[in-house]
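Contributing new records

If you add data, match the layout below exactly. Sequence lines come first and carry their own label; structure lines follow with theirs. Keep one chain per record. Anything else will be rejected by the validation script.
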Amino acid sequence: MIFQTLKLLIVDDDEDDFFLTSDYLKEIPNKTFDITWANSFNEGIKKLKEDNFDLCFFDFLLGAKTGIDLLKMALERGVSCPIVLLTGKDDQHIDLEAMRLGAMDYLVKSELDSEKLNRCIRYSLERAESIRRLRESETRLRSIFEHMKDAVLLKRSNDFIFYYNTAALTLLGYNENDIKQLHFRRLFVESTDYERYLQALEHRSESIDHFDALVLRKNNERTPCSLHMSKHTDSEGKPYTMIVLQDITSRKRLERERLLSEKAASTARLVRTLAHEVRNPLTNIHLSLDQLEPDLVDEELRLFTDIIRRNSHRINGLITELLNSFKAQETVLKQVSIHKILESTLAEAIDRINLKKITLIKAFGSERFLELDESKIKIALLNLVINAIEAMPSETGVLTITTDVTNEKCFVQVKDNGPGISPENLNRLFEPYFTSKTNGLGLGLAATLTILHSHHATVEVESELKKGTTFTVLFPLTKHAPHLAEPIA
């Protein structure tokens, strides 16, 4: 038979009640007790400081203080053992208050016997162990949530957030005070996305997976996210929703780059086929003209053949331009300053800038030397700068050129405050012959993309109607590329 020895503290200012309780304890089978007695409130505090106990009994009446006061103080001091409150009479108010504060049980002295004490001790120890395990589990879960790279939010049915992890604060840009006042609706950039969420919630009773939407950060930046939401109920029966937000900016960028590459490849195949099919009849036209012209003596007829020949050459030239826009660029790479290229590019565009009275802002970061074909990169950047200039109104236009290094890449940003680009046109930007200009051919951006791909660089476009457009070119950093610490103004 296994005997269990428990260290027990009894705080009771009535010596007779203490001895009576001790006698009941001695009658409990299979348990032995190492009992410590404190005969006052202050003595009880002292004993709790000096030793650790497996179980505590606090009398309700302790002079000017009460067992409730002692219970509060014990919990404030981090006492983790189960505490039982003893009282001389049954009082439901005291019972509820003691249990609310964290007491494991509430016993009336006049009803005590060894059986009730034994049951109370067993129940208190088992409940305390269950609570300890729950707290350990909660600590582990909190640690998991805190170390998750994905943002986690918990919200009530009124759409206000009551829990968040560190990743959520980082992703959304809020501090702890602000996020508690955040209504879930305010996370969505588009009201239609929030309405889609409500509709999805109605049709799917338990969870929603892979709900893609633009999320608005505190600084008004827009971040594409994938939301995973599931419904739960807490211990009090209150419903809440857990939301996991994954930043899918990189995924969207890769999807866009893949789409552009696939589109460019399919268009290039079409262009080569088209060029072959068009040049064959063009060749026949030229041969026919060569045979026909010597026999023509009428000058008016010669005028028409000249028109045919000029337009044939024009068609052939357009086909050549189109083929060149998709032709792999042969690059002669050397280490060159990106700022030097930008300064040279802006020098070529300065007349246009001055004529339209556009404000030029240069926000150059630390100098970087990259492996580039200087002449070709200059063409690509000049296309972006000219497009930005032409998109902006005179006098109020602001052109901002920014450079910096992030995530092992050097980026160049060309930003304008023009009318912006509609979502439909944004997806067609790099298609050949697509242009919104009345006198443009639509080959500039197609050629730019080809040049950038030949340098293993990528381009991202962000645009908002009535606010402007930003082109961001990302160049891979070369190993051991020299750089200067001081930024260039």
